Amino acid sequence: MKKAVQGASTIIRQWPRVVAESIGLRRSPPVRPAAGRIPDAPTWHASRFAASWLGHATVLLRLGETTILTDPHFQERAGVRVGPTRVGRRRDTALPGTIDDLPPIDVVMLSHAHLDHWDKASLKRLAKSYTSAVIPRGTRRLLPRGFGSVTELAWDQSAPAGGTSVLALRPRHWGARYFFDRRRGYNSYVIEGDGKRLLFAGDTAHTDAFDVLARAGSTGSALQGGVDLAIMGIGNYAPWEHQHATPEQAAAMAERMGARRLMPIHHSTFRDRSEPIDEPMERLLKAWNPSRIICSRIGESWFCSDDPISADALSVATTKG
Predict the structure, then answer these.
(1) Which residues pair with 236 in a beta bridge?
(2) Spatial CB neighbours of 217, under 8 Å, sequence gap ≥ 6
(3) I want to staple 230 with a disulfide (CB 3.0 to 4.6 A). Which of 46, 79, 250, 254 is the partner?
(4) Higher per-residue pLDDT: 223 or 149
(5) DSSP codes of every residue in 80-99
(6) Measured between alpha carbons, how far is 54 from 298 in angstroms, rounded to an integer?
(7) How many Å from the N-terminal Cα to the C-terminal Cα in the chain?
């Protein structure tokens, strides 16, 4: 309860500045450029295992022949529309591209309905007949029409999605669209396909919910234990540690689940004055082997070294390994 009160107090203190910046009464600090750009479609489709961080919890994934986009948010601010103005936190780091730059998306995967993860304007642009959506229970009415299929998952339920299978796990978070809306679900997702297993944790505080992934066959598949890639939030922990993991906690969870690589997200994106922009990555680099971290900067892409992609097709902000 004490931490929840501290979090609410932080919002109340910051809100006047956020509103003033949103409506132009106060100048916002400069925005950092992204480290790279969204991969072009030919390069992306040539890979069978790849990832690109587009900011906050928006991640582009390639698994086999399936392209997945998580928690898409392509607005300058994370907040609510008040007439023609969007009021909310502004980006600290620019987007690495627009929705029009994306390769065709097979699956849009949404972890929960918070405004910084579930952006209706972006979802309207992504709603195509060839794109399916995977969402938590109780959130279908928030999803714009136009997706080819919609799969609503409760905890411990699984379903096919594109050429992959998806299992919903329970993170330590909450799913409200607004403060008073507590009936909606919130998920982390285990994604399996083409002989790989990934975890997209979404938002979570420290939890043992993912420890089961360290055991072979723990999700009903024949894959070896652990995950090939854990996508974990490492920011917005001050004073929200009861809802968002610290970098050290994210590293500990990744270690216990047997993660071979870690992709840190949910940092350095939307301005949070209670947390220095570089602090989450500085702390993570002390808690986790840097050689096993991918896409630590917005706009970076990673391609598995086994993929048949020529080196000259990769941008300077792309890594292989």
Answers:
(1) none
(2) 223, 225
(3) 254
(4) 149
(5) EEETTEEEEEEBSB--SS-G
(6) 6
(7) 43
* Cα–Cα–Cα angle for 112, 114, 119, rounded to 5 degrees: 95
Which positions ≥6 away from 10 have C-beta within 8 Å?
A: 239, 274
CA 77/CA 115 separation, integer angstroms: 10
Crossing angle of the two packed helices 279-287 and 247-256, in degrees rounded to 10: 40
Q: CA angle 258-260-262, nearest 5°?
A: 100
Question: Which residue shows structure tokens 């922009």?
Answer: 277
HEC per residue, 9-23: HHHHHHHHHHHHHHC
**Each residue's pLDDT tens digit, 26-58:** 566 789 999 999 999 999 999 999 999 999 999
Cβ count near 315 (within 10 Å): 15
Distances from the Cα of 198 to the Cα of 34, 49, 150, 260, angstroms: 25, 10, 21, 10
- The span from the CA of 230 to the CA of 156, in Å, is 18
Q: For residue range 193-246, what is the model confidence (pLDDT) as tens digits?
A: 999 999 999 999 999 999 999 986 545 555 678 999 999 999 988 877 778 899
pLDDT number for residue 312: 36
Residues, the chain? 321
H-helix or E-strand containing 36? none
DSSP per-residue string spanning 185-212: ---EEEEEETTEEEEE--S--S-STTGG
pTM of the model: 0.88
The secondary structure of the chain in percent helix, strand, coil, rounded to multiples of 5, reads: 20, 25, 50
